[in-house]
Amino acid sequence: MLGCVIRGQGDLRVEELPVPEPALGQALVAVRYGGVCGSDLHYWRHGGVGDFRLREPMLLGHEVVGTIVSYGAGARGPAPGTPVAVHPATPCGVCPECAGERRNVCRDTRYLGSAARFPHVQGGFAARVAVPAEQLRPLPDGLGLRRAALAEPLSVALHAVRRAGDVTGRHVLVTGAGPIGCLVVAAARAAGAARVTVTDLLPRALEYACAVGAGTVVRADDPEDAGWPQEVDVAVEASGVAAGLGACLRLVRRGGTVVQLGMLPPGQVPFAGNLVVSREIELRGAFRFDTEFNDALRLLAAEPALDALVSAVVPVREAESAFALAADRGRSCKVLLDFGG
Ligand SMILES: [Zn+2]
Ligand SMILES: [Zn+2]
User: What pLDDT sits at residue 24?
Assistant: First the structure.
């Protein structure tokens, strides 16, 4: 079978790999689609993401959907052939965060295709993948595998909006209109936001944001853009650059909430800390997700408009060009690899 392995910075390979055997408690999944995530692109271009560095070859991919093939000993679940999405996180279940219902920040979690721990957790960009059977989620009626491939990034977006508190009737600012920013727009609308304003440098990215419910879009590099709001109730930073955080802190109302979702550059990032003080801004982080994965599948089933965010489906053999396309936000939003399974 073919798999998509990162061997180091800039060294992405499509390799012939042995088909895994499902171990105790595991299911074997025939992967159909794998979404290329910003973090996959970071491993490819920079050899790491955030503060996590690549230290050994790793199968990439954590946005994976397919059909069940078989089960290992002691595992059970939906019948073989059932279409499923794979929840990529396996929290430890015993740490204080797991006990306190914050499994997404578990201190010993295993996350598909992540170098956060060593040995790295191998990912799902392969034609067959063995994962804990309890990580599988059957797709709701009416949801096909292609749109379901957005379940993981949409879960991230839903979690960020949840971290913002009640957004019903609120004006929400989203900085960054990449796939995650666009999904935050959809998540905020679904949570009852009255208005969503989105900023980005690229007109093409802003078009994707409009397609999923952004009411106002702003060119981030144009201070004269008529779309800049005076003030917003909530801001979600989804660009991962310090300038985005700066815009959020400047535009959120006094006592408002800013959620940092985008992964900032490694190390120290300067920010306007005194605004946090003098305006009593709630500055919160949002990392991955937990039960939002089930909510994401339901929302995807109900929102065919989200299809607009899947901008290309590329055969796994052409993984490198798929990554180049995904990295070029002037030409793409979410790019899926097709493993044919
Ligand atoms: Zn992702
Ligand atoms: Zn834990």
Answer: 97
